[in-house]
Amino acid sequence: MHSSLFPQKRLDQGHTVSEVDGNKLIFLRVFSMHVFGYGSLLWNPNFPYINCTVGYIFGYSRRFCQASPDHRGTEQNPGRVVTLVPEENAKVWGLTYSIATDKADEVREYLNYRERSGYFVVTEIFHPADGSPKFPVNIYISCQIANPMFCIGESLEQIAERIINSKGRSGSNVEYILKLAHSLRKLHPNAVDKHTAELESLVVKLCLQRKLYDKSLIELCYAVQSHFQ
After folding, report:
1. CB 3.0–4.6 Å: which of 90, 147, 163, 165 could bond 143 by disulfide?
2. What DSSP line would sit under 106-124, residue for residue?
3. What is the DSSP letter of 71?
4. Are 43 and 29 in contact (CB under 8 A)?
5. What domains appear along the chain, each with residue ranges and CATH number?
6. Mean per-residue pLDDT of the chain
7. Residue 149: pLDDT over 60
8. Residue 113: how many CB atoms within 10 A of its CB?
9. Among 75, 87, 88, 115, which one carries the catalytic annotation?
10. Rounded average pLDDT over 211-221
11. Model pTM above 0.90
């Protein structure tokens, strides 16, 4: 299944098939790079791509345990954004962007800068939701060793408090989690993970209880304007 959220151009020619662990994988010659998005890349890739495909990877779970000292917070008050942490038998839904050969260096340079706060790249196998052949993808995840931005172990309540009080140059941390949950629901019925859903619910509850206005609450239909007046 290809996402209806973004422009698509399906390419069915010029591919080769290789064997990896006895399973067929498809490699499109026109692509030199496939990037799996599971956070803000779902709604804001901001780089050129040929198509995007809905699907999932195994062996990880999505967690709000990456500090954001720039995009969704500040150095003095870093927000919380998602990364992936290893978890046996877990599944993470997202979008894979296929990038043309002549754009790969440009996109790689952009993503290396965008994800500079403690992220590194791993390669995993992506499973398209429509059952088409799986293929390897690049994924930016947080480094868990000697990385002050990796903050695993916080409770949902601690993360929620951080989110409702953080804002960076890309916008509020509240906007980030609400857009993430909204984007996941549009991807696939099974795309929203328990951690994100529970945190989303708690953040919305706190915002409404404390009358903490954020425009995304209105735009994404979590509340009405009059509630904050």
Report:
1. 147
2. HHHHHHHHHTTTTEEEEEE
3. S
4. no
5. 15-222 (3.10.490.10)
6. 88
7. yes
8. 8
9. 115
10. 96
11. no
* Predicted local distance difference test score (pLDDT) of residue 86: 96
- As a whole-number percent, the residues of the chain with pLDDT over 70 amount to 86
Question: Token pair 């069915």 is at which residue?
Answer: 12
Q: Is-catalytic flag, 115?
A: yes
- Determine what percent of the chain is predicted with pLDDT higher than 90: 77
pLDDT of residue 24: 43
Would you state the pLDDT for residue 31? Answer: 58
